[in-house]
Amino acid sequence: MKRVHSLMRVTFFLALPGMMHSHLMAEETPASPGVAPQTEIVRTEKSLKEAVAKRFKMGVSVNNGVMTHPAEAAVLLRHFDTVTPENCMKMNVTQPTEGVFRFEEADAFVSYAQKNNLEIVGHTLLWARPENTPEWFFKDGDAPASAELVLKRLETHISTVAGRYKGKLAMWDVVNEALADSDEEYLRDTEWTRLLGEEYIIKSFEYARKADPDALLIYNDYRCDRPGKLKKLIRLVQSIRAKGAPIDAIGLQAHYEYGMIPFEGIEATLQAMRELKVKVVFSELDMDVVTRQRWYEDDGKHQEELSKFDPYPSECPPEVLESQAAQYARLFALILKYEDVVERVTFWNLHDGQSWLNDWPWKRHNHPLLFDRNLRPKPAFDAVIETLETPVQ
Ligand code: 9MR
N- or C-end of the chain: fewer Cβ atoms within 10 A? Predict the structure, then answer.
């Protein structure tokens, strides 16, 4: 509690409309002469991290904006013990041009988290999609870069970035989204795969361990609950280990869709990882309520119509919120069943207004998280707390 107070006291805060609800109180503290009055934000709802009671870590992804937004910081510090930077440690930010490293944002993030006793998850050393790897990586002047050069660059990148924060981060998402989506292919068809096959993944884990020996090293991907992708995930874990490289955990991104949470597939993944003795993190949890599946169906022929679809522009209907709450509760009950395997659950953003699902794959008002746009806890929040507080049978 001391931490929350000291943070709140350094920043002047103007109450936001719609924020003065029963879970939250703002108190003015007397100002010294010549100093603006300060408002302390005390949240009174139950705390997620306290309800979890150390069975796993409770995390959230944020941007540096939280540092200058006391109301958001109050939510962050009351509920979470772990933070993931949403964007500032990605390759396109940390090394946009070869040899030009930019750490201003990441340094500020790390120092804020440390000051507030938050554990940090580095995200991510290598995002294996073409659009998420800077183009210079694969060029050598006008010619394509050789496999040796690309590997050398990868080593430099990982040793520089992970090395900079050595001992300060609890975990690293080492490689992100390297598995192919189709059932036929094993790895995503990219320059990485064409030049190096699996080797670039194996080497990434070796470089990361060398640069920061105490960080828990994670392979992170989406939809590993699909049988085809789970098979590939198992193959990848076994392959990394067979080469003597380190892997400690797999990350399930967990970008779920309302009414379509693949509970069976998630359980199959948890079981498989328990057998392999690999930890699991739910690394980017949210629940899209203006679901996106149809966007990709029938060769994209619904996209024009969907791009105007925005059914909940102001409030999300109560029945949707209630059903979302029930789905979150079921998910957390499943997670608790595997608490020996699950190391962390991280929500992807703090509140509904910040979610990437308001923009992707089209612009709409989404409501995927536990806190609404005014930082009020939603029915899903209560349902998660209740699930966490219910003794496991
Ligand atoms: O939420 C992130 C968004 O702000 C960025 O524009 C985007 C591209 O860098 O990445 C989003 O986060 C992604 C995460 O890093 C990896 N898994 C998928 C997430 C959603 O796209």
Answer: C
The full set of domains in the chain, from first to last, is 43-389 (3.20.20.80)
Enter the pTM of the model. Answer: 0.92
What integer is the mean pLDDT of 93-102? 98
Spacing, Cα 2 to ligand 1 middle (Å): 33
Which residue matches tokens 């496999």? 147
Number of the ligand 1 atom closest to the C-alpha atom of 349: 1
Encode pLDDT of 207-266 as tens digits. Answer: 999 999 999 999 999 999 999 999 999 999 999 999 999 999 999 999 999 999 999 999
Query: How far does the centroid of ligand 1 lie from the alpha carbon of residue 167, in Å?
Result: 25
d(CA 44, CA 21): 10
Distance (angstroms) between ligand 1 centre and the Cα of 23 equals 30
63 lines ligand 1 (CB under 6 A): no
Nearest atom, ligand 1, residue 360 CA? 21
How does strand 171-176 pair with strand 119-127? parallel
User: How sure is the predictor about 18, in pLDDT bands with cuts at 50, 70 and 90?
Assistant: very low
Q: Give the residue whose CA is nearest to atom 8 of ligand 1.
A: 87
User: pLDDT tens across 263-311, in order?
Assistant: 999 999 999 999 999 999 999 999 999 999 999 999 999 999 999 999 9
**Could you tell me the CA-to-CA distances from 346 to 40, 58, 76, 178, 352 in Å, in that order?**
27, 6, 12, 21, 15
Q: Is 86 in the pocket of ligand 1 (CB under 6 A)?
A: yes
Catalytic residue numbers, as ranges:
177, 284
Give the whole-angstrom CA distance, residue 66 versus residue 74.
Answer: 9
How close is the Cα of 90 to the center of ligand 1, in Å? 10
Q: Which of 4-13, 76-85, 175-184, 287-296 has the lowest mean pLDDT?
A: 4-13
Mutate to test the pocket of ligand 1, among 60, 83, 87, 88 (most ligand atoms within 8 A of CB): 87
